[in-house]
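Table S2 (text version). Query chain:
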Amino acid sequence: MRQGKLNKKRKAGAAFALYEVLIGVAVFALGVVALGRAAQNCVNASTMAEIQTSPTAPDPAQESEIDTGFGVVKLIEKSAPAQLVEPDNTQLNGISLVTLSAQWTRSGVTQSRQVEFYVYRSG
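Corresponding structure-token output:
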């Protein structure tokens, strides 16, 4: 008789409560979202680094498509001389303004993100 009561107590304490499972799922979901953001930042950084470390001037316009597994992302790169001027009206040459745009469709709605940065190439 006594052993039966001990087994019931052990079984009751061995299961997870609903709130414990929900907390675990929430932590997992936050980790997945953070990992997705980190992957997005890596793509942005690698593309910017590729353009910035190239020994030649950036292409005036270039388009490419990336299959992410969640859909196709269209990456558009545009470059133009920055036309920057010093306070004494001296033209700054060799600086290009590069615009990277990413476009994708989610649930039938076209979305996009854009980043601009400067690239210097001497000579």
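Notes on Table S2: The radius of gyration is 27 Å. The first strand starts at residue 61 and ends at 67.
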